[in-house]
Amino acid sequence: MQKLIVQHFQNMLKKIKISNGVDVAKLIDHTNINPKARAEDIKKTCAEAIKYNFRGVDVRPKWVKLVKKEVKGTDIKVIVLIDPPMGLSSFQERLRVCKKARADGADELDVVMNIVDLKYERYNKIIKDLKTISKILPTKVIIGSGYLTDEEIKKASEIVKEAGAFCVKTATEKDPLERRELEEKARHLKIMKEAVPRLFIKASAQIRTLEDVKKMVRAGADIIGTSSGVEIIKNL
User: Fold this and answer.
1) What pLDDT digit, counting tens, does each position of 125-156 carry?
2) Does the annotation mark 161 as catalytic?
3) What superfamily would CATH give domain 2-234?
4) Which of the four, 38, 94, 142, 182, has the lowest number of CB atoms within 10 Å?
């Protein structure tokens, strides 16, 4: 299933022109992971996704049912962030949250790799965890590239591929890379793309302008995670 998903997205991306507003929108996972978000905030995020035809809406687990209801009848994907910011929950808890997200209507998981396990080279443990999760729903794995060395970024990306996820993602909340360090994020994307050229790459955190999007795409990003999608499209 994951291979078919990747092939579908690759075919779609061949047609994308970064200068076209609708096409740029289809790169964007419109994101609202603010822990203080209220139902009306999530509904607004969904309404924006529908208006601008974004690729998906990315939220915390508690909002999956609401997002599924709000985007019903569209092709907008319901995406759920799992275990931020470092992926430190137990395997059983991660599994429980992922299965509930599927039951609530999620289409994709954005799950954080256990970054501490990666640092301590507990690779088999990570692979077992992610292999199981990737069988639940199409999965993007967040590696927290800002915490990692170049070699760790490469290794993490290879683990994501081995686990059967379709996409490797740079970061989520509390990304240690600041906005002024987007060039460093772009460099990380290039390492990821070189390590796993057949996987999708998602760039996220601190991406706020059309120029930021262009920079990430040039570096290898296939998907953009941002809460600034509306502002990006308005500036085309």
Assistant:
1) 999 999 999 999 999 999 999 999 999 999 99
2) no
3) Aldolase class I (3.20.20.70)
4) 38
